Hints:
- By secondary structure, the protein is an all-alpha fold.
- 75% of the residues lie in helices and 0% in strands.
Amino acid sequence: SVISDPRITELANSIYSQASIMGLVSILAILVKILITALFLFAGSVKITDTVNADMYATQVNNFNKYVMLPYVDHRVSAEQFRLAVGTFEIAGALLLWATPNLAASFLLIVMAAAFGTHQYFDEPLFAPVLPTVLLVVYLLLSSIKGSSSSTSASSKSNASKSPSKPKPPKAKNY
């Protein structure tokens, strides 16, 4: 019997195990994406408005009054414009994470690299950009694992469809 063949049983168990792991990876990727979205929506919002958290907004206003003096910031830009631009980038990146995930995550990593540079330049603690950066890297790794698995299974399905089929018997000729 074909079903009692140990090779087929081993293959079925392997496929089931891989599907379970990939399901877990997909769930983790979604959970991390939700967390990243919440973090960047909050971080961007407290830079733009005081309705989310008035104290954090006031802190951001004060911080950006000095951040605008960074050597890589165009000094024709006001502290308010700089703060609003960064907040808008964070919110846009959070929302784009659901439309173009890898591009948005890469964009947000660039924003976080600038945040690290800013905090380092002013000798501020670097803990603020650490969590979002780690989450972005974890998300990109999970997406990469998930993507490589789906492309591998897609190519095996494609190769399976290209495998030679049994020749069809010739049709009977009607005379």
